[in-house]
Amino acid sequence: MQLDQDTIAAVATAQGYGGIGVIRLSGPQAKSIAVAIAGFEPKPRQAHYCSFLAETTEVLDQGLLLFFPNPHSFTGEDVLELQGHGGPVILDMLLQRCLELGARQARPGEFSERAFLNGKLDLAQAEAIADLIEASSKQAARNAVQSLQGAFSRQVHLLVEQLIQLRMYVEGAIDFPEEEIDFLNDGQILGRLEHLEQDLDQLLQQAGQGALLRDGMTIAIAGRPNAGKSSLLNALARRDVAIVTEIAGTTRDVLHERIQIEGMPLHILDTAGLRVTQDRVEQIGIQRAVSAIQEADRILLVVDSSKEADADLHELWREFFDQDPDPKRITLIRNKVDLSGEPEGLELNEAGYTILRMAARDSVGIDTLCQHLKACMGYQPGLEMGFSARRRHLEALRRAATLLQQGREHLLYTEAGELLAEDLRLTQQILGEITGSFSSDELLGRIFSSFCIGK
Ligand code: GDP
Ligand code: ZN
Fold first, then answer.
1. Is the pLDDT of residue 383 over 60?
2. Which fold has domain 8-120?
3. d(CA 141, CA 228)
4. What is the DSSP string of 53-68?
5. Which amino acids are annotated as binding site for K(+), given as ranges?
6. Class of 133-212+387-436 per CATH?
7. Position in ligand 1 atom list of the atom nearest CA 244
8. How confident is the model over 144-158, as pLDDT tens digits?
9. Contact in structure between 272 and 251 (CB atoms under 8 Å)
């Protein structure tokens, strides 16, 4: 991706009304635009309190003007900030003035993109800006700040450093066979490779925790009509989100609710009860339920413990999903223990299913359920002070881990140094995608276009 020479401008503060509103500009014309708007040449990095002038010298607004000459600015280019009053009309007038003076409207994420292209931030740091702004909990915000300050990137760099050392060693051995380095018996290579794999694995765990805090997990509540699914949603949300009635078939569409368990975002879906029905609207609701359940990270399968045995559930599942319920994705909720008299609590049965006995209507067992969901998310208390990470980063780390493992197998079973060397080269490239030292225009476009304008 190439930097263009345009000067870009955007309202950097949120839409709507506010005490102040900021317009940010970046590019070679920032200074001349400042002179035209203020009527004087601004001193670098000083706050000038002044009038913002229209072409007619009519005063548009008054406020603070800040000029940051390149390269000491957020984008690495000349940057101008106009801090005026935060109303949509006045900010729009000021922005129009900047556009008349030669700037163009910035695309989403274009300031961050320029900062990245000018080497002010790496890609993981640029993503952390967006994650910080969009953080849904305090812990997620703390993690994003850590990533912004380079905590994640540093770990990736350390891995890349190790990898480069190992590559030099391996490639040296290939290029100078007369030195007769015996790959297999050279404990050095295997030792370093294993060390690298361990470090990568540790980073993967930390990044997984970071991604969890950022993205959370989607949980679908499923079961027959009247099992107590909507009651369970309400109990988890700790408010009345869904309509609860004794009439079967009340919940017809998929209901969404976002909750947090100790800072971790959970996306809970209440779905229509699964049953065979002639009601056309209910049928559509059930189709939607089935696809929501298939896509969820975890399923809470609810039964009325006063009426149904676990065996009925297997039958239900086979009917709608053509397979047995997967104990790795499903928690069986035996609801309404107040009616059945079953003791409340969590249990793992012989078939490997986690069974939770509770009474959703009265929130009995909700804390146990929350603890259980936390465990399902792979939440590790010792690891919580981390950094933010995205699924993209996790995927890259996983691909890198697979390649290293493949490299080790190539070394052990084929003694082929060339194959190992190629695996290591690709691993380095994949790790480089995280920080952006290897990146395609397509990847950059995808990342920055998801940012908001002015970021
Ligand atoms: P859904 O159709 O699966 O969403 O079920 P609802 O949440 O709408 O509940 C159906 C009926 O069961 C309602 O009358 C609820 O009050 C009742 N119910 C839900 N949970 C419990 C429970 O734990 N104990 C008892 N006794 N009744 C419950
Ligand atoms: Zn319901």
1. no
2. Gyrase A; domain 2 (3.30.1360)
3. 35
4. E-TTS-EEEEEEEEEE
5. 226, 245, 247, 250
6. mainly alpha
7. 8
8. 999 999 999 999 999
9. yes
